[in-house]
Amino acid sequence: MKKIARRSVEHWTNSDVFLSDIDFLVIGGGLVGAASAWHLASAGTKVWLCEQASPGHGASGQNAGSLHFQIERRFLEREDGVGREGEQTAQLSRLAVQDWRDLERQIGRNLGVHMEGGLMVAHSAQEVRLLETKAAREQAMGLAVETIDRAQVQALAPYLSPDILAANFMADEGHADARIIAPAFADAAQSAGARLLDATRVASLQKRGALFEARLEKGEEIQTVTAAKVLICAGIWSPQIAAMAGLHLPLFPAPLTMNATARTAAFLPYLIQHVGRRLSIKQTAAGNLLIGGGWPSRLHRTGSGFDFSRAPALVPQSLTGNLQTAVETMPVIGEHELLRSWTGITAVTQDQLPVAGEFPSLPGLFCAAGGSAFTLGPTFARLVADQMLERRRDEADALLSVASPARFESLNGFMGR
Amino acid sequence: MSKRIGFVEPPAPIHIELDGEVVEAYEGESVAALLVLHRDGMSRRDRDGDARGLWCNMGTCSECFVRLLEHGRSRRVRACLLEATDGMRIATGSHTQDD
Amino acid sequence: MTDNAETSYDVLIVGGGPAGQAAALELAAVGARCAVIDEQARPGGQILRQPPVSFAAQNWVDENSYRPLRQQLRVFENQAAIAWLGRRSVIGLQPGPQGHSLTTSGADGLQELSAAHVLIAAGCYDMPYPAPGWTLPGAMGAGAMQTLLKAQGIVTGEPIVFAGTHPLMLLIAAQISRAGGKVAEVAFDRSLATIGKSMIRHCATALRNGSLLGEAGKAMMDLRRAGVPVRFGRPLQEITGADRVTGAVFGEADHPETTPCGSIGLCYGFLPQSDLPRQAGLSVRWSSPSGGWATCHDQWMQSSVEGVWVAGETTGVAGAPIARDEGRIAGLGIAAALGLITNRDATRRAAPFRQSRKAAMRFAAMLDDIAAPKQALDRVAASNTTICRCEKVSASAVRETLGSTTDVNAVKRITRCGMGLCQGRNCEHMLIRMSAAAEGRGLETMKGFTGRFPARPVSIADLLEKPLP
Ligand SMILES: Cc1cc2nc3c(=O)[nH]c(=O)nc-3n(C[C@H](O)[C@H](O)[C@H](O)COP(=O)(O)OP(=O)(O)OC[C@H]3O[C@@H](n4cnc5c(N)ncnc54)[C@H](O)[C@@H]3O)c2cc1C
Ligand SMILES: Cc1cc2nc3c(=O)[nH]c(=O)nc-3n(C[C@H](O)[C@H](O)[C@H](O)COP(=O)(O)OP(=O)(O)OC[C@H]3O[C@@H](n4cnc5c(N)ncnc54)[C@H](O)[C@@H]3O)c2cc1C
Ligand code: FES
C-alpha cells in the first residue's frame, strides 16, 4: 500500500506518524464507530471505518432505541449506584440530551429522533418512594425530572393502567430509530471523507514502533494498513480486538430480548419505563410498539465460549414476563399482535459503567464500548474523537474519567507486550 | 362479481356482522370467503387509503387480518382461517386503527 | 383421528397435508403416540383443502389424479390413534423437556406441546409475484382461487384471468371453468417454443408420465371447449383498477393489450414454508428455480438438528406424490429412532417409497424447467412495483439501497422491506434475488432474513401467562 505523508492535524504529529497510511482506524461500524468516524473525518483527517458485516450489524441495529436520561433501574438496584459514578453519568446524560437535540441537523440525515418526554412509572407505594428519592437526586444533578401523581399520569397518558400510582416525568426523553442510525452515520462519515470498508474484518492488530498495524480481511482479499491511532468500538467483539493488541478489556456479553407489535395508529408519544420492573415501551414512527427492558435471552455456546455469530435463543419466561409487565402497565397492548421477538447482545462491564478513552498502557489505542451506548453513543463518539484529535483533550478526559479504561490497568499491568 | 357455485349444498344460513352490516353466511364458512362475496375480496384500506385484498387464502400472507369483536375485547385474526359462527362480529381493516 | 388435549407425545407433526398424514399413518401403525397440528380446521393440506363439515359437498375434487390422496385422507380421518389438533398455528419450535417443544396458538390461547421427535410438513405457498397492481383486491395467488373454490364453493370476481409460468394454472382454470366460473384467459409468460424445448430436454420423463401430462391436455381441451383462450409468450405487464382489479395488461409497452377481468390469479410457482425450520436454526438451502428456502435433510428426512424431521414441500416443491413418499420415509425413520421397528425393517419398508420418489423427482424437475420464473421475476425486479406489500416498499427503493449494501438484513433495516405483518414471507425471495444480482453472486450463496419467533403474528393477550380479565 502507498504511504501517504499528508498532515492535517498538527497537535499530535511526530516523525513516525508521518509514515502511517492513515490517521485513524475505527474498528466497528456500530453507532459509536460510525459517529466517531464522522467526527474524525469532519476534522479533515484520513479515517477508515472497518466493519465486518454492514453498519448496524451489531447491537446498534438490534436495540430498543430508547433515549433514557433518568437514572437507570439497574443502577437503582445497587446500593452505591447513584454516588459519584451516578453523578458523572448524569453529567454525560445532560450532554447527550444536547447532542441528540441537534444530531439530525448536524449530520443532515433523518435518525427518527423523537424527544417528547419519558415516564418512569410505579405500581406500588414502595416504588413511589423510590421515584421520589430518585427525582430528588436527579434534580440535584441538574436533570429536569418531576414526580407526578396518578391523576396527572392519567391526564398525560390515559392509556396507562389506572393501577399506576405515580411516575417520574422527564421532558427530554424519547427514542430514535435504531434501524437506520448506524447506516446514516456511516453515510455521513463517508460524505465527510471517511472510507467505509464493509464486509471487512480486522484480523490482527499490533503496535509497531509508534504505529498500529492492522490486518484487514474481506473474503479472500487481505490487506495491511498502518494507522497513527486506533479506536476499538466493536461492541461485544471489543475484547477480542483488544486481545489482538495484547490487552484485557473486561466486557461481558449480555443477551437481551425485544418484542415488536404490528403497526397501529400513532397514540404514544412518550418513552415508558418502570422503576421496579424491566420494561420499556415506545411507538416507532411507522406505528409499531417496541417492548423491551432488559429481559435475558440465552447465548449459544461453542466448544470454547459463547457464539456471537448466532442470535441468542429466546427464553420463553422472558417473552411472557416482558409482555405481562407491558400489559400490566399499558393494558391496550393486549389487543395488539406480537409480530416479532428478537434477541441481541449488548456489552456490559462488571461495574455496569461504559468504557471510553485511551488505554494508558498502550497510548494511541482507544476504545468506546459498553453501557447504554445508544443513548450515550453519540456523546462517547464526540468525546473520544476529541481525545484522539487532541482537541479540548482535558475537557474530554474529565468528562470521560468515569468510563476510562485506566480502571483496567490493574489487569493490564500483568500483560507483557 | 364473485359467486357461490353449485357443488356445495349449504345448511341453513346464519348471520354475522361485518362492519356493522348484517350479512348471511353458513356455519363454518371462512370470513375470507365472505369478504370475497361481499367486498370483492377487499380486506382493508392501507395507510395511504389504497384498497387491499386477500392474497393467499391459506394463512401465510397476512393480508386478510380483521378484528374479531368478542367478550368486550378485540383480537386481530386472519379472516381466511376464521370460521363464521352465528352472531359473530367482525371489523375489517377499513374500520379499525390497524394499518 | 381424535381431538385430543394432551401436551406430550412421542411425535408431533406440523401439517396435515399429504406428507404429514403419510408420516402419521406409518407411525400410528407401529404404535407411536402422535399428534398432527394444523392451522386449518380439517386435514387435507393445500391440495385437498376440505369444505366445512356443515357443507354437504358433492363431486369434491373428483379428478382422477386426486384419488390416491383422497383415499389416504379417508384412512387418516378414520385412524383413531392419531390426535388431530386443528385450528392451531405452530408459532415456535425450541428445545423442550422431552427433546423439542412446539408453541401453538389458537382461539383458546397458547399451548406448549413437547415430544422427542418433531416432523415439519408445513407445505408451500403461492409465490408472491409482485406484478404492478398486485395489491388490488381481486389479485390473488392462483392457489388461493383454487382453495376458495375447493373449500368454500366460491368463484372470485368474474371473468377471471390467470397469468404466470406454472402449468398448475391450467388445471385450476379448468376446475373453475367446469364448476361454472367464467375464465377470460390463461396467459403463459413463456413461449410455446421455450416450453417445448424444456419438454424435449425431459422427453423420457414426459413419456413416462403420460397420464399427468394427459391431465394438462384434458384441461386445455376443456378450456378450449368453454371458449377460454390459452395463450403463450404473453408476459403480464400490469394489473389495473382503482379499488379492485378491472383488467390485466399484456404485451409490449408500446402496444399494450388489456383483458378486462374481475379478478386475476397469479401462478409463477410455489415457495416452501420455512419459518419454523429457520427459527429453530435448521440448515436450509435456496430452492431453485422458484426460490424460497428448502430445509436440508438426510436419507431418512432428518434435518440438521437431531429429532427434527422434515417432509413434503418444506423440503422443496415437488408435488403431492413426492410429499407423500417423504412423509412415509420420515415416519419410518422416526419409528426406527423410537425403537418401534428395526433399522433393517425401516430400510426394507422404505425402499418402494424411495423408488417412486425418485421417479417422481424426474417429473418435478421437468415441471421446474417448464415453469422457470426467472425472466418474469427479472422483469418486475427492474420495474417500480411494490415488492413489500405490508410496508409498501418499491423495487426501486430496494435497488437504490442495494447501491450501499447488499446484505439483505441491512436492506431490511434500512428500507423496512420484510418488517411488516407477513414477517417477510411475501417479499424476501424478491429481495434476495435483487441483492444477489446486484452483487453478481449465485442465489445459492445468499443468506436470508434471520428466522424469529413467532412464525405467525399472534395476539399478545393470547401469549400471556395470566389471561386478561
Ligand atoms: C436488545 C438490546 C436493547 C438495547 N436497548 C438500548 C436502549 O434502549 N438504549 C441504549 O442506550 N442502549 C441500548 N442497548 C445497548 C446499545 O444497543 C449498545 O450499547 C450500542 O448499540 C453499542 O453500539 P456500538 O457501536 O458500541 O456496538 P455495536 O453496534 O455492537 O457495533 C460493533 C460493530 O463492530 C463490528 N465488528 C466486530 N468485530 C469486528 C472486527 N473484527 N472487524 C470489523 N468489525 C467488527 C460488528 O459487526 C458491529 O457492527 C441495547 C442493546 C440490546 C442488545
Ligand atoms: C394454495 C395451493 C393449492 C395447491 N393446489 C394443488 C393442486 O391442486 N394440485 C397439486 O398437484 N398441487 C397443488 N398444490 C401444491 C401442493 O401444496 C402440494 O402438492 C401438496 O399439497 C404438498 O403436500 P404437503 O403435505 O407437503 O403440504 P400441504 O398440503 O401444504 O400441507 C401443509 C399443512 O401444514 C399446515 N401448516 C403450515 N404451517 C403451519 C403452521 N406454522 N402451523 C400450523 N399448521 C401449519 C398448513 O395449513 C397445511 O394444511 C397447491 C399448493 C398451494 C399452496
Ligand atoms: S389471505 Fe393470506 S393470510 Fe389470509
Task: Summarize the structure in words.
- The complex is a heterotrimer of chains A (417), B (99) and C (469).
- In chain A, strands 1, 2, 8, 9, 10, 11, 19 and 20 form an eight-stranded mixed β-sheet that branches.
- Chain A is α+β, with helices and mostly antiparallel strands and 417 residues long.
- Chain A is globular.
- Chain A is built from eleven helices and 20 strands.
- In chain B, the strands form two sheets. Chain B has a five-stranded mixed β-sheet, with helices on one face. A two-stranded antiparallel sheet of chain B has the order 5-6.
- The radius of gyration of chain B is 13 Å and the shape is globular.
- Chain C has three domains: 195 residues, FAD/NAD(P)-binding domain (3-Layer(bba) Sandwich), CATH 3.50.50.60; 141 residues, 3-Layer(bba) Sandwich (FAD/NAD(P)-binding domain); 62 residues, Arc Repressor Mutant, subunit A (Orthogonal Bundle), CATH 1.10.10.
- In chain C, strand 6 and strand 7 form a beta hairpin.
- By secondary structure, chain C is α/β, with parallel strands linked by helices.
- The model of chain C has no long low-confidence stretch (mean pLDDT 94).
- Classes of the chains: A alpha+beta (417), B mainly beta (99), C alpha/beta (469).
- Chains in contact: A-B, A-C, B-C.
- Chains B and C meet through strand 1, strand 2, helix 1, strand 6 and strand 8 of B and strand 3, strand 9, helix 3 and strand 10 of C.
- Strand 18 of chain A pairs antiparallel with strand 24 of chain C, so a sheet runs across the interface.
- The complex binds flavin-adenine dinucleotide (2 copies) and FE2/S2 (inorganic) cluster.
- The site of FE2/S2 (inorganic) cluster has 13 residues of chain B, from loops.
